[in-house]
Amino acid sequence: MADKPKVYIVIYSLYHHIYKLSIAIKEGLDANGIDTTIYQVQETLSDQVLEKMHAPVKPDLPIIQANQLADADGIIFGIPTRFGIFPAQMKALLDATGQLWAKGSLAGKFVGTFFSTASQHGGQETTALNAVTYFAHHGLMYVPFGFANKSMFDNSEVIGGSAYGSGTITNGDGSRQPSETELAISKNQGENFANILNTYHRGKKKIAATTGADSDASIRSLKAVSHDTTANDKDTPAITTTDPEGQTTQQKNIGAAAGAAAGVTGGAAIGAGAVSAAYKDPNIGAGAGAENNASGSGANAPTDVKDAAASPEQQEQQRLQQQQQQKQQEQEKLQQQQQQEQEQQKQKQKQQQQQQQQQQQQQQQQQQQQHQQQQPSKPSGTANTSTAREPKPTQEKPKKKSLMAWLCCSSE
Fold first, then answer.
1. What's this model's pTM, rounded to 2 decimal places?
2. For residues 306 and 320, is the Cβ–Cβ distance under 8 A?
3. Cβ distance 20 to 180 under 8 Å?
4. Distance CA 204, CA 256 (A)
5. Which helix (H) or strand (E) holds 141?
6. Contact between residue 254 and residue 236 where contact means Cβ atoms under 8 Å apart
7. Residue 7 host element (H or E)
8. Digit-coded pLDDT (tens) for 159-177
């Protein structure tokens, strides 16, 4: 890894406006310890056309090839806008990065943008948005400028640039040159880009150094054990030796106290006879321990000495396995939660059905009660009150008088 992060400023500049901004950006990068190089893309216009356009001589800059982009830690593109998108010269370079995309050569690198347009609102932001599609496909990490410079809030003068990067306004004939404010904003963008890249670069170096130190410490620990001598046999060969690739070798004819002073990464000590079960070697001496019993006078030894000092590749595999186990546990938890939710839903549905049945029964009972109330009540007994009639009092028929009695009593 290089001592300094490397940044390429890649520009296309017809009238040197972008070129002047790139110099200011380079100042900001250089001031913060960045190894900076300005490149220009290949011109596609002929000399005759450039002469008719009154274009000045190109700046003395190297022409970049697409494969060179992979050598940088960060890239900042200086793009003059053509109708809100790239000029053909810049697009030709980006379209030639297909092989870099196939290999993932630009993935993880930082990238920024700055612009020039003939007028205000001339397409600087849309050019940035079009550039982001290229960056996203390559896996580049886009670093916008934001509004890090207070001059960007000053509306008393014409200022190019936006949250996507610094910029300048050129006028239609190219007569306007970058102002001092625009150049200061460009330098500020270079400083901000450098701070982000330096922070990432330092962190990456620290991680690499820490990982390497841990691996070296494990190897040194095991090699130190291999040179120790035991109390019973000073000529006893090393128990295990781990090379830088993480391979562990085993020595035979181990003496009586072969495991007494052996140390493993993590601080555990293998006691006398603690390593025998892992090997099952008939040549191991009397104090080596019995098969299927790895407990000696010291701490229990690991079942496999190769696990004592894992190489970085093995550590990475272990980390991936742990992640997979965690994912499986999370999936199991989700499945359990789903099952619980399903059971709760079933219970809820069952309760609802029971409630509905109870409501139906209550409704039926109410209907029966209403029907009974509507019918007239019958008295106890066989007779019906609606049809029963009171018996009429019997009247005695007058007895017929005999003729003689009638004649005798006619004076009455």
1. 0.54
2. no
3. no
4. 48
5. strand 141-142
6. yes
7. strand 6-11
8. 999 999 999 999 988 899 9
User: Contact at 8 Å (CB) between 192 and 148?
Assistant: yes
Question: Of 158, 255, 147, which is closest to residue 192 (Cα–Cα)?
Answer: 147
| Other Cβ atoms within 10 Å of 193 Cβ, number | 25
Which tens digits make up the pLDDT trace of 69-127? 999 999 999 999 999 999 999 999 999 999 999 999 999 999 999 999 999 989 999 99
Query: What per-residue string of b and e applies to 169-183 under the rule 16 or more CB within 10 Å gives b?
Result: bbeeebebebbebbb
What is d(CA 145, CA 186) in angstroms, rounded to the nearest whole number?
10
Give the Cα separation of 130 and 85 in Å (integer): 7
User: Residue 133 contacts by C-beta under 8 Å, 6 or more apart in sequence?
Assistant: none
Biggest alpha carbon distance in the chain? 179
Which backbone phi and psi does 380 adopt, to 5 degrees?
-70, 140
Nearest to 24 by CA among 195, 168, 170: 168
Question: What does 283-348 look like in DSSP terms, one character per residue?
Answer: TS-GGG--TT----SSBPPPS-GGGTS--HHHHHHHHHHHHHHHHHHHHHHHHHHHHHHHHHHHHH
- For CA atoms 339, 345, 347, 350, give the dihedral sign: negative
DSSP-derived 3-state class of residue 128: helix
